[in-house]
Amino acid sequence: MGEFNKKWFQTVWMGLLFASLVIDYVQRMSDAQWAHSEAIIMLDKVFTWILLPLTVLLFVLHNVESWRKGARYFWRQWQNGATAVLVGGGLAFLLVLIVKKFKGEALEIDSEARMVILAIFAVIGLVIAFARYKFKHWQGEE
Description:
81% of the residues lie in helices and 0% in strands. The chain has helices at 6-29, 38-69, 71-103, 111-136. It contains four helices and no strands. By secondary structure, it is mostly helical.
């Protein structure tokens, strides 16, 4: 039967995911009648039910591939993924707290508060990027 072409599978999955996201965005942002027609709603449901098993399959294939490289590599990948989720969740929680502080009881955040929030997360992102660069290039200039 031949070897499974994972790259082709990922490309098709990415195209379907992009189409699904476009349909969701159009439905959310547009009041046009065609965007909320039964055909578009059905297409969105079809994309959802196709993408769900494909996503699970890609996840399983990636983990099997990692396990075949070695158990240590597999667990290192899981540790890195869990760390990324925890850092991302922590930063999202921090963002919610900052927005709540600046917003208070108001309906909107003024532009000065938006710039402060943007600056805080820009600095955090630059520090993380610099730390990653230094970690990968710790032996000197390349």
